[in-house]
Each structure stands twice: as C-alpha cells, then as structure tokens.
Amino acid sequence: MLTERQLLILKVTVDDYIQSAQPVGSNQLAKKSGISFSSATIRNEMADLEGMGFLEKTHTSSGRIPSERGYRYYVDHLLTPRPLPKEDIIQLRSIFEDKISETEEVIKRSAMILSELTNYTSILLGPDVRRHIVKKLSIVPLTTNSAVAIIVTDSGHVENRVFPIPEGLNPSEIEKMVNILNERLVGVSLYDLHTRLEQETMMVMKQHMERYGELFSTFRQAVILPREKNVYYGGKLNILNQPDFHDLHKIRSLMDVMEESEHIPMIIPVGNQGLHIRIGSENALSAMEDCSVITVSYDIGEEQTGSIAIVGPKRMDYKRIVSLLDTLSGDLSKELTRIFRK
Amino acid sequence: MLTERQLLILKVTVDDYIQSAQPVGSNQLAKKSGISFSSATIRNEMADLEGMGFLEKTHTSSGRIPSERGYRYYVDHLLTPRPLPKEDIIQLRSIFEDKISETEEVIKRSAMILSELTNYTSILLGPDVRRHIVKKLSIVPLTTNSAVAIIVTDSGHVENRVFPIPEGLNPSEIEKMVNILNERLVGVSLYDLHTRLEQETMMVMKQHMERYGELFSTFRQAVILPREKNVYYGGKLNILNQPDFHDLHKIRSLMDVMEESEHIPMIIPVGNQGLHIRIGSENALSAMEDCSVITVSYDIGEEQTGSIAIVGPKRMDYKRIVSLLDTLSGDLSKELTRIFRK
DNA sequence: TCTTAGCACTCGCACTATAAGAGTGCTAAC
DNA sequence: GTTAGCACTCTTATAGTGCGAGTGCTAAGA
Fold this sequence. Notes:
Chains A, B: Keywords: Repressor, Stress response, Transcription, Transcription regulation. The structure is a homodimer. With about 350 residues, chain A is of the alpha+beta class. Helices cover about 45% and strands about 20% of the residues of chain A. Chain A has twelve helices and ten strands. In chain A, the strands form three sheets. Chain A has a five-stranded antiparallel β-sheet with strand order 7-3-10-9-8. Chain A has a three-stranded antiparallel β-sheet with strand order 4-5-6. A two-stranded antiparallel ribbon of chain A has the order 1-2. In chain A, helix 1 packs across helix 4, helix 5 runs parallel beside helix 12 and helix 6 packs antiparallel against helix 12. The first copy, chain A, is elongated, with a radius of gyration of 27 Å.
C-alpha cells in the first residue's frame, strides 16, 4: 500500500534519524544521494506517511521522526542486513581467542565485548542451570557444627553453600552420608534435586537415622535457596551516553528495572527462539517504553538455550545490531556446544 | 582561633546546608533556635569565616556554602556523634536476623541495607580471600579431557574453575593426585598456594611422573587465574537521587570509576584501620572530587579485616553516616567473627 | 568596642519580547 | 504528478526587565 517512493523516503528518514538523532526535514532529505525529487514532493509524501502513522513531528514546524509504527515497518520490511564490517568480526572473534573452557566466562566476555561494540547495554542469559545434571555432591565439614555443601554439575558449574550440621557428627558419618547422596542423586537434574532430596530424607528418617535426617533436611534447605541468577550484563552505563536519554528519572527507573533480576523475564521472554525486536511500548515494562530491545537465542548442545539481548534507544542501529547478534548467536552456539561436548 | 560564635555559625551553616542543599543566608540562620544575635552580626561573622576559607559563595549575592576546608573543620571539630535512632538500629540488626552462616552473604546484605539506610552508595570489601586456609582440594572430572578444580577454604569460601586434563587419565589416577594435593596443601593459605603448587609440580616431575606433572601444572594455572574480587556494592544507582549530581558526564565517570575494581584501592585505601573521612579533592581519584567517602574497617577474628565505605556528595550527612558505620562495623565484626570461629 | 538597624547594591532567576532559522502546508504554475 | 514560491508556525538564542534574596558597609546605639 506504500508506493516505492514512500518506502524510499521512509527508509531514508529512519536511517538518517538513527544516525543523527535529529528530526529529518524535507530539504535535508532532498540533498541526499538516491533522492531525485524535490523537497516539495518529499513534503507531500512525508505528510502522507505521517497521515498513515509512520512518521511524527515533535512540533508543528519541525522535521519528522519515525513513530513506533514507522520503526516497526522499517524493521519488518526495510531492513537490509548488510555483512558485518571486518573490524566487528575481529572483535567478536576475540571473545573466543583464548580458549576459555568455562561457559560462564565465555558469556561474561560476550556481554562485555557486545556492549563495547554497540555502545548499548547487553544482557546475556546463560543456560538454565536447573537443567544441569548433578555430577558430584560433597560436604566439607568446616567446624563442629557447620559444613559447606558443594554440587558439581556436568557443565562444570559449581554451587556451594555453608549450612549448619548437627553437633558431634563425626567425619566418617558425614562421608557415609555423602556416599548415599552420590549413589542416589548423581545424574539427577538440579531441578529435580529438591524433590529427590525430600524422598531421600523420608527414607533416611524411616530407617530411624534421625541425626542423618536432620543433616539431609538442612542440606536440602541449603541447596534450594535461590542463588544469583545467571544473568550477565555489559555496558550498564552506556545508557548514559545516549543523547536520547537525558531525564535522570527515566534513566534511574530504566536502570533499576534492568538490575532487578525478577524483571529479566519481562525483558527477555523465555523460550523465545530466534531473533526478536521489541520497539518502545511493545516492551512489557513501562520503564522501557523509550527503548528497543533486540533478543536472540543461542544453543548449547541440543537441549539447552540461552539468550542475548541488546537494550538501546528506539533510535537504535537495528541493521548493525541484528547482524551482530546473528553472528554472535551462531558463534556462541558453536563455541559453547564445543565446550559442553568436550 | 575561631571564636565560640564563629564555631556555632559554622556548625549551623554546615548542618543547614547538609539538610537543605541550598546556600545558607544570614537571615535564615538568624531565625534558627540557638542563634541569639542578629543577621547583621551573622553576616560579619560569615564574612570572616569566608575570609578564613571555611565558607564560600556560589555568586556575589548568594548565601554561603561550606568549602572543603569548612567540611574538614566541621568533621574534625564540630561533629557531635549522636546515638542512632531506634529505626536505624532495627534496620541494621535486620542484617543478622536470619542467622546466615556465610560471610559473603552477610556482607552482601550489609551493603544492601546500608545503601537503603543512607541513600548513598555503599562499597564493602570482604576479607582478603588469599589469606584463607585451604581446607580441602578436589578435582571432579567432567569429560575425558576436562575437570573442575575445587578449593574449599576454612571460611567456607569455594573457588572453582574448569581446566583441561591430559587425555586418558583414569579416575583412580586423579584420585591419587587429589590425595597427594590434599596431603601436602591443606593448611596452606591461598596466597602461598601458588608457590607450593610449583614445588609439588617439581617434585612430581622429578619422580618422572610426567602426566601428573602436566595435571599439576594446569591445575596450578587454573587456580591462580584471578577471580572476581570480593567487592560488594549497594545502591549503585543512588547517585542518581542526589540533587548535587546533575551533570551526566560527571555521573558517568563517577559510576565508571566505582565499578572498575582496580580503582577500589584508591577509593578505600587498604590497611586503613578505624574510621576515615575523605572530602572532595582529598580523594585520590579526580572523578570523585565532588564526593566524600567515609570508610571504616571491621575485623574477623584476630587477623582478618574488611572495609566498609560510603560514597556520597560532599554535602553528606556526616553525623549520621559516622554513627551508622561505627555501629555496623562493630556488629559486623562481632557477627563475622562468630561465624568464623564457629 | 561590640552589636545591630538600615540601606544601597549585586546577582540569579523567571518572565517577556524580539529576531533568526528551520521546516511545514498550501497554492499555483509547469 | 511535480515543483517553485511563499506565508505561516514554532523553536532557539539573545537581550531586557523586575523581583527577591542576600550581601557589605555605615552609622547609631548599648
């Protein structure tokens, strides 16, 4: 329903605004190469585009800026992904250059490099630790009444927590317990660990081993307490660089929202496969109504997935970010699957 | 050299400015209870105080604000610590209410509560992990050529890292190695672990156990790689609430500086015992020239120490913060020593 | 000699007026 | 259908004005 010329004008307008952050005027556009009609024509077309809701004016006699609908159309129909420049590729590859063998480290690095490359904020979600499989459990006594519980998963992830133990339990008893735990719980996912531990506790209690039951139950409590999420940030402060954000209150609430881990699922919907772009009020959180978020998933092996998100202004360099995320998602999947398989 | 009246005026001026963030005028001061002389007299005294460098004007006909020297004098001579209000004490005590048995958790909570209580940014340094003593070493094989190294210290702290192992090492060989490691390295501080591991590697190599030597040496490398510092923050975003900070660039560089762990020793000088106040340009970092930093140390047992710092504007509520930190330092020392001893 | 009332003076700030500039919408001619 | 021309709108920058808060100084009073 949009004419060729309207498409061209919309595209150039969005591109220009993304680049300059200034409302785009008809004269300015007419000067661009690739535009072979006069500013008056452009004015007419722009008025039409505004009528259709793709552009808006900041005030009566200003140039135009893209509306959310305009960005959406741009993203859906006018985005011509171009190959990444060499420098970007080199930078991205540098994430993997020193063969780190820990998933967590690779993700951390990705978050950092990505934010440097984009000047936006990056949020990376690691794979769901709860789906990892218990490789080994151990209990290391610290004092007469405390010990540290350690769970190693098949991914090399280590969970640990100090917990109280019944007074006067001797080391060989603990060892016996640990053996029972390992016999029965190795191979179980962290997700199932809680219920399984409950069953084991019942079992032990039934056999009238009260003291062990107590140990089991505190061990269980220690193990289920929520640990920090595996969310990694890069360039949290980059928001402060964006000319689009100047209102301290908005910045504050945006930063607040991003740090709060309970909001993360609202920013990055879980289970979203592939690349997604959420523009302005398309985001679930009102604090992000001036932001665009681009998310992409990556795979580790066949079953596990993680997510990458870039949070920036609506006036985001969509073309570049999409290419970057596409590439990084692929690279990350390959590298993390390699680490995982190895 | 300052008269009683000048002291009084200086004190009231600083107090007022701390509270209102507005330059203090003579009329305004004259109205205060406790002031029994006219605004003209106050004007004269203020002019003197300005001459001596304790006060300054923001412009010719404005009220006065304290100069850095003024704050310094106030802090050194006019600070009458008053007992903490009940609410504050209750809040502080809430840090310890659910008997957490992990140093790290307690410190994290302290950072959080402290920032909520002050509306400033808190930075807490945990005890130097490198001085902790190895309680147990273990190696959990993940695949044929990777394993995770785990070090548990006497404090319950767990360091872990995935590292490559020579292909085809069988579990019993690894177990043997772990036994050797434990026999020889339990009781060594993390600080000494590196050199001690080097010696052990040499020893193993001498006995022509090349494959074990390789394991030892990669284990060593894995273990010395720097892990994140034990620095905990609270209220990083509180800076954005302060009316004193409005320049986005300054805010940005201040936040940058605080996040960068290499700058931490410049913010909190290590080995500083007791309470210290650094005002404006007294701080080592130029990004903090508009800030005041109050630091206090706390003890864990007889040997270990940590630090608490509050970063806020120069117009900081010194009285309150000093009382808070004094109390928290004491409470934290008691609680962490208890956990440590237990 | 110290204190204070009085007063002229200085700025910052908020408000208004004005001019310049960028951009628009509309009309009429091509 | 396109475009030149033009009146119009609105922002931004700059200057001018009045008000208010606050100062410094002077001179009178204690």
